Amino acid sequence: MGGWYEPESGLLIAKDLVVTESDSDYLIYFHDQMHIYWKKLSEGYSFEWTFLEVFNKHTEIIREMAKRGIQHLFPINNLDNILISHAPKIKEKKENEKKLVTLQKEKVYLIEKKIKGLHIQAHKKGSDVKIFSEEKKDITNDFSILIEEIKNLSDKDFIIDGGLVTNDDSSINLYVWDMPYFEKDITEMPLSERIKEIKNLNFSDNIKEIERKISNGGIEELRTNIEWASNLPNSEGAITKDLSSKYEFGENYSYKKYNPLKDIKGDNVVK
């Protein structure tokens, strides 16, 4: 794979596209194209767009979609699927309740906010830093603005797992939620112990530990903490995590995701 990417239409979307001036049909088309661009970059193709530019433009598009009643619910290739529905609130509530029932009432869980961002791993060895996407693509050059801050997190070698979020002022935050390596492989450690290692990092204004709480008071406390996490800035829901779980990069099936209960306007499903 790889080489120079030429779209079938022969035209690429302009980088200076003003999404607020586009009608909804074109907005959906532009959204789909961002997914295609991301996929082509992940496959090693080259063209005028970079990972960071696709990520930022995609963020602009989904924010405009949200203003028009479109909400992202399911991740695909680290961007997103979108759903527009008249009444997803009841459906989402049922799905959330179904997940809550499967949790063990007496067990201690970690509740985190579910961010609207790009899932990455950052590797620091000596003075070298590399950033990888969930597809294991090296995207270091696209997020070079964070390299020094990542390097300054610790004098030790480490690998952190987290999400990149683009803010309204185009600044970027990295939220760290796991650490599979800290001077040694710690993937077999329970999550509770890995979090203790995360506390050793020197976090900065742009790199932060993800907001989370421990819940051990049963289902009602879980509901309260899930609502708390869902209402945090840059949150699109909540995740419950088993504190005894081992590390996995990507989808960890012991974790459960909860979408916020919001009314959404519209009458079409876009995949």
Report the sheet-strand fraction: 25-35%
Number of domains: 2
Largest sheet: 5 strands, mixed
CATH topology of the largest domain: D-amino Acid Aminotransferase, Chain A, domain 1
The coarse overall form would be: globular
- Which architecture of the largest domain does the CATH hierarchy give at level 2? 2-Layer Sandwich
The spatial strand order of the largest sheet comes to 7-6-8-9-10
CATH C-level name of the largest domain: Alpha Beta
Q: What is the overall pLDDT average?
A: 79
Unreliable sequence segments: 81-91, 261-271
Overview of this protein structure:
- By secondary structure, the protein is α+β, with helices and mostly antiparallel strands.
- The protein is 28% helix and 25% strand.
- It contains 6 helices and 14 strands.
- It has helices spanning 24-42, 51-67, 88-102, 147-151, 191-198, 219-230, and strands at residues 3-4, 45-46, 71-72, 82-83, 109-115, 118-125, 128-133, 158-166, 172-182, 207-209, 212-215, 235-242, 256-258, 269-270.
- Helix 5 links the parallel strand 9 and strand 10.
- 30% of the residues are buried.
- Mean pLDDT is 79; it is low at 81-91 and 261-271.
